[in-house]
Amino acid sequence: MVLKLYAVSDGPPSLSVRQTLAALQLPHELVSVDYGAGEHLTEGYAQMNPQKEIPVLDDDGFFLSESNAIMQYLCDKYKRDSPLYPTEAKARAIINQRMCFNLASYYANISAYTLAPIFFDYERSSLGLKKVHLVLEVFDTYLARLGARHAAADHLTIADFPLVNSTMTLEAINVDFSKYERVHKWYNDFKRNYPDLWKISEDAMKELKQFSAHPPDLSNLNHPFHPIRH
Ligand SMILES: N[C@@H](CCC(=O)N[C@@H](CS)C(=O)NCC(=O)O)C(=O)O
C-alpha cells in the first residue's frame, strides 16, 4: 500500500514531512486534514494519534506521529544510504540535536509568537518576542560553530526542513530577523538552492499571510485547550 500522510496545508510539522517525502522521492498519498472542522479532534483520528495532532504517517497500517520521528523513519526505512540522514554516529547526532532544538525550543517559542495568535485568542507580548530573539541567537550560534552551509552538515539534511518551516512563520508575519546574519543567509540559501522544496513552505506562507490579515473563523471548533476568538 502506498504511504499515506495525514497533513494540514499550513502546519510546519506537516510541511517538513512533505519536504522529506519529496526529497527522498517517495510516492505517497496526501490526505488533507480539516483543522478548522476539528477532524483531528475526533475519536477516529485519535485511533491513529492519541495526541490528536497533525501530521500522521500511515505506512500500511503502521501509524506514526511526531514529525521528527516520521522524517527519521522514512529515511531509515526507505533510503538508508541517503545523505539526508547519514548513519555515521556524530553526523546523525548533530542532525538529531538540531531537530530536538527545533521541537523543544526554536519552533516552540517561535510558533507561540507567530502562529498561536493568528488562530486563537492569544496576544503577542514583548516577552514572547524576547524568546523569539533568544532562540534566533542560539540558532545563529549553532550555524557559526558548525561553519557549514546547512543547519547540521555541509549538505542538506532533514534537520533543515523543520528549522526552515519555523523560520518561515517569522517571515509570514514580517518579523525582521536579518540581524541574525547566519540564520538569514541559511534561510535565503535554502530558498534559492531548493526551489521545489521551498515551494512547499512558500505556499503555506501565503496561506498564513492571508490568515494573519483575515483571521480564520474557528468559533465552531470545540478546542480542548486553545482559547477561541469570538
Ligand atoms: N510535535 C508535533 C506537533 C504537531 C502539531 O502541533 N501539529 C498541529 C498542527 S500544525 C496540531 O495538530 N495541533 C493540534 C491542535 O492545535 O489542536 C509534530 O512535530 O508532529
TrEMBL record:
This protein's record includes keyword Hydrolase: no
Protein name: (diamondback moth) hypothetical protein
GO molecular function, one term: glutathione transferase activity
Record Pfam families: GST_C, GST_N
InterPro entries, sorted: Glutathione-S-Trfase_C-like, Glutathione-S-Trfase_C_sf, Glutathione_S-Trfase, Glutathione_S-Trfase_N, GST_C, Thioredoxin-like_sf
Keywords: Transferase
Xref: PROSITE patterns: GST_CTER, GST_NTER
GST C-terminal domain location: 88-216
Similarity comment: Belongs to the GST superfamily.
Keyword Transferase assigned: yes
GO biological process: glutathione metabolic process
Annotated ranges, domain GST N-terminal: 1-82
